[in-house]
Every structure is written in C-alpha cells, then in structure tokens.
Amino acid sequence: MDSATISKPHERLAELLETELEGVNTLIRARMASRHAPRIPEVTAHLVEAGGKRLRPMLTLAAARLFDYPGDHHIKLAATVEFIHTATLLHDDVVDESGQRRGRPTANLLWDNKSSVLVGDYLFARSFQLMVETESLRVLDILANAAATIAEGEVLQMTAASNLATSEEVYLQVVRGKTAALFSAATEVGGVISGASEAQVQALFDFGDALGVAFQIADDLLDYQGDAAATGKNVGDDFRERKLTLPVIKAVAQATQEERAFWQRTIERGRQSEGDLEHALALMGKYGTLEATRADANRWADKAKAALDVLPDCEIRHLLSDLTDYVVSRLN
Amino acid sequence: MDSATISKPHERLAELLETELEGVNTLIRARMASRHAPRIPEVTAHLVEAGGKRLRPMLTLAAARLFDYPGDHHIKLAATVEFIHTATLLHDDVVDESGQRRGRPTANLLWDNKSSVLVGDYLFARSFQLMVETESLRVLDILANAAATIAEGEVLQMTAASNLATSEEVYLQVVRGKTAALFSAATEVGGVISGASEAQVQALFDFGDALGVAFQIADDLLDYQGDAAATGKNVGDDFRERKLTLPVIKAVAQATQEERAFWQRTIERGRQSEGDLEHALALMGKYGTLEATRADANRWADKAKAALDVLPDCEIRHLLSDLTDYVVSRLN
Fold first, then answer.
1. How far, in Å, CA of B76 to CA of B80, rounded?
2. Which of A303, B39, B51, B212 is the most exposed place for a label (fewest CB within 10 A)?
3. CATH superfamily of A9-321
4. Could you give phi then psi for residue A74, rounded to 5 degrees?
5. Model ipTM?
6. Do B154 and A125 touch (CB under 8 A)?
C-alpha cells in the first residue's frame, strides 16, 4: 500500500460514515442533557465535544455498514460505546489521595473528584438505557461482559501497576480491560445488530480485540519513544507515574540484580531522581525491549487484519485494515 | 396493631425469606470474586458482609413471594439490587478534594478514592451481568431507568446540597435518586419477574417509591432529633456537612431576613461556629419544621401502605405494611 492509503484512515471512515456519525452526535447531545442536574452536560461537554476521533463509535457504525444494516440501532449502540468510554475517562480522572500527596499532577483539574464519579455514573446509566432500547439480549450480554472486563482491568491495573511481579499475561489482561474490551464490544455489537453470521460476529470480536491490544501497546510504547510535539505527551510519563508497561516488564524480566534494584527503587518505591528516566531508557535499549514491544504491536495488528478476511470484501473492510496499519505505523 | 407487631418487621421478613436470602448471600459471594483482581472482594466484603439488613434485596424477594414465584430469577435480582446499593455507597464515599480541605471527616477511611470508584464500577458491571441473565427486557428497562434516576439524583444533591434556593420539589427529586428509586425498582422487578398484573406491578412500584421516600425523610429528620446512642449518628451531622434537608428547607422558606443571613452563613458559606447548631435547632423549633417533616414522613408511609391494598392478602403483605410503620415509628 502507498503512503496516501495509510495517511488517515479514520478520517476517511468518518467521511464515509458522516450521516451516521451526525446521528450519533445528535443522540449524545440529547441524552447528555439532564432536566434536573445542569452540572452534567457541563462536565461531559468538554469530554464528548472536545473533537475526539470517535474511534469507538465509528467501529460500531463500520461493522453495521459492512452488512448494510438498514435500521437505527447501530446509532444507539455507537452512542452507548462513546458514553461508556467517556464515563471510563471520568472515573480514571479520580485522583488517589496518596497520589496527590506525592505531588502527582491531578488529571481532574476542571472538576472535583465527586463530580467526575457521579457524572461518570450518570453516563453509564444513560448508556445502559440506550442499549436496552435495542431490545437485543445478546447485545446486552456482550456489553455487560465488556463492562465487567473493563472494571476488572482497571482494578487490576491499580493493584498491579507498580508491582514488579506483573507478568506480560497480567499486562495483557489490563490492556484488555483498558482498551480492547470496548473495541471488541463495539465491533461485535455492530455485527450482532446487523444479523451477521456467527463466524462473522466472531471475526468482528477478534478484530476489535486485536486492534485494541495493538492500539494500547502502541500507546505504551510511544510513551517511551514518542515525539512529544506529535503525541502531546512527555516521554516517560508512565515511568514517572510508576506504571509498569510492556517495555519495562520486558526489561525487568531480564534484569541483573543491580538493575532489579533500580526498578524496585524507581517503580515499586517511587523514589526517582534526575537521570533515572535516562537510565531506564538505557536498560530498555540494552535488552532491545522497545523493538520487542513494537514487534508485539505489529503481531497484534496482523492478527486484527487476518480476522477481517471472513467479512464482506468492501471499502469499509479495507479502511478497517488501513486503520490497523495506521495504529502501528506511528511506531515503525 | 400492638407494639409486638411493629417491633422488628424486617427480622420477621428475614426469617420468612431465610432460604432465599441464603441464596442471595451465596450468589453475592460468588459474583464478588475476581480471578484477576483480589482487591475487589477485599474492598466489598466489609460492605456486603457487614451484616447489613439486606433491606433492598428482601423487598425483591418479598415481592416475588407475594405471587409464589417458583423460579430463581428473584435471587439474581435481589443480588443485583444489593450490588447496586453497595456500588452507590462506595461512590458516595469518594471525597471531594475541596471537602478534604475543609477538614471534613473522610468517609473512605479504609481505602483510597480510586479503589472506591473502580470497585464500585466493578459491582455495577456485575449487577448488570446478573440482571441480563434474567433475560427480561422489562426488568432491564426498569433497572436502567432506576440507575439513571439514582445517578441524576446524586449529581443534583451535590449541586443543590448547600444552595438555599433548593425547594421541597428538588429535595424530593434528590430523595428519589438517593433512596426511593432503588426501593421501587427492587419491588417492581420482583413483581414483573413473577408475572404480576399491571395493576399489581404499579402497586409494587408505588409501595417501594413511597416507602423509600418515607425512609429517607425519616433518616433526615433523625439527624436532627435522633438519639445518638440508638442511631449511631451525631445530632446535626447534616448541618455540619451543610446538607439542606427537609427540616432546614422548611425553616428557610419561612425565614426572616436575619434568619436567612444565618442560613446563608452556616449552610451556603459553611462558616460555622459554636452555638450555631443550637440556633439552627431553635429556628426549626420556632416554625415547627421537625413536626412538619414528621407529618410528611407519615403521609408517605400511609401512601405506601395504601398501595399494598391491591396485592394478595397474605403474611408477607402484612409484614410489608408493618415494615412501613416501623420505618416511621422511630419518629413518633
């Protein structure tokens, strides 16, 4: 494929799905509103309206388009998925008291913890109402299971984040909760609502799951090798926040006794000083863990693209394949 | 009715529903467990196992028993309702940063904010899975709407709590979110799952709603006139936490200019000093707002008992009526 093809596939998807996306935006605005509590749209507007890429709702719309679904439940499900995503972001923003004490930058600069929690709950409840309107028990089952995987992954991340014993397997579980569970639910419900065959529904799940894992691994890798100007993030944020991600997990697995002591001090005990990030990067360089992490991301991307094979051969399918390439192209 | 009848009706209900309640407890323990995140049962156990009265699940079981429901979905729904209640408690525990700064006692002494939020989310997700297992779209619709009312009421409470403009109407909306929405959903789904008639389902909703409102008004009144030894709460906690509840709302509505300035200082601006609680109580005495609040609670209790009329005449129904009397008997 040439470089134009992999330029911005999500923009081309957005063009192709423009009418449906407008429907999703209209529905989101309508359902965010609260007769009784004006604080709600105030808190959510900046998240929902902030010009996000609407990647997750687009996955649902794209899955439905693959099967020329004629109804409007996919609009509801796309809004559902975006509400769940936004609620998760709000709840992630809640700051540990211990976190504050360590002087970490707070993520909820604009509102207090309580607003983040309660408005997040409101969005969860709204998403729940929306999905019930589809009257599909299978869709409800998929989304209930995704919600449990997401919540379990979040708790796991909280407890495992700074624990050097965290394995690649636990990391994958966290990644599924954090990202892949909602991606795979988004694609799967799009297929279910459109009457896709079992094999196709499974393929849509597999695609969303692998795309989500690739996406999150790429994100974690970019934290260490990204271009701050392009990503808007500072290199090493995860290190400073003592988050064990794949590049570090791979380095810890091969660490000498002395190196292990370094990771214990900086990640487990959080005693960091100048030069530590540079040393961490040097250790990752020593064992080639950034390259190994990139290879993992690429493997997941390949898996995602392979899953697409049993789906109808059309422009949307090609764009989903290009989207997958794009997610990891930032790394290569 | 004699005093023995109104002694502890919830204990007699628990006796009558013992087998089902054991089923609920077993299910709760099974579904709390997390293969991946052992922190979860650790956080929830103290809430779920703390020997609560299991009032809400008992309402669901009682409603099903009224119609001799032979299945086991009522066990799932009772566990659902308890999970939602526990999740709400966990999220209520999250402390405002501003709240802490004012030196308010933190409610989440045992775990940090982040654990309360994420484990609460996990319980919500688990409750969602449980209710989907009943395969009743109507049940899902009822619980989705209850979830939205609860979340909206919580946000409303947060924004209205210290605002003197809060009317009795807004207070009622908060009370519905805080308490009555889950009571009414608990009774209603018990009827729906048992195949009760439309009139009976409506009656179960009305009963749960009015009982919940009476329960919360009683709770708010006891905060000002309770026996600290019996309730385990200190008189005036709501005043100190600047929460506008019915006794104060009624006093504010009749306040002179000078009295209004007192409420503005103590509730809106939170500048309280010694003697303020006593003065607040004197103002409530002057306008008889504790008596008026008690009369309101009794009216809601009467409404709840009246709703029971169309339900099958049996011991459970009489116990639900006694339970209603018991809720307000603490006040009389």
1. 6
2. B51
3. Farnesyl Diphosphate Synthase (1.10.600.10)
4. -65, -30
5. 0.89
6. no
C-alpha B315/C-alpha B308 separation (Å) is 12
pLDDT tens digits, one per residue of B178-206: 999 999 999 999 999 999 999 999 999 99
- Closest residue by Cα to residue B157 from B245, B252, B237: B245
Q: What is the CA radius of gyration of chain A?
A: 20
Distance (Å) from the alpha carbon of A162 to chain B's nearest alpha carbon: 14
Residue B56 CB partners (closer than 8 Å, separation 6+): B78, B81, B82, B85, B182, B183, B186
Q: List pLDDT tens digits, range B207-263.
A: 999 999 999 999 999 999 876 666 666 789 999 989 999 999 999 999 999 999 999
d(CA A228, CA A119): 31
pLDDT of A34 reads 76
Q: Do A140 and B118 touch (CB under 8 A)?
A: no
Q: Look at the block and give the residue holding tokens 């049996």.
A: B314
Q: How far is CA B267 from CA B103, B195, B235, B277, in A?
A: 16, 48, 16, 11
Task: Dump pLDDT digits (tens) for A246-256.
Answer: 999 999 999 99
For B94, which of A113, A141, A155 is closest by C-beta distance? A113
From the list B205, B155, B208, the residue with the least C-alpha distance to B179 is: B208
Residue A263 CA to residue B300 CA, distance in Å, equals 61
The string of DSSP letters for B195-219 reads T--HHHHHHHHHHHHHHHHHHHHHH
Report the candidate in B149, B108, B144, B95 with the shortest Cα–Cα distance to residue B124.
B144
Residue B104 pLDDT exceeds 70: no
Substitution target from A36, A88, A96, A156 for chain B, most B beta carbons within 10 A: A36
Nearest C-alpha of chain A: how many angstroms from B84? 11
The answer to whether the CB of A187 falls within 8 A of the CB of A63 is yes
Q: Is the pLDDT of residue B99 over 80?
A: no
Exposure string for A151-165, b = 16+ CB within 10 A, e = fewer: bbbbbbbbbbbbebe
The superfamily CATH assigns to domain B9-329 is: Farnesyl Diphosphate Synthase (1.10.600.10)
Residue A273, number of CB atoms within 10 A of its CB: 7
Min Cα separation B106/chain A (Å) = 11
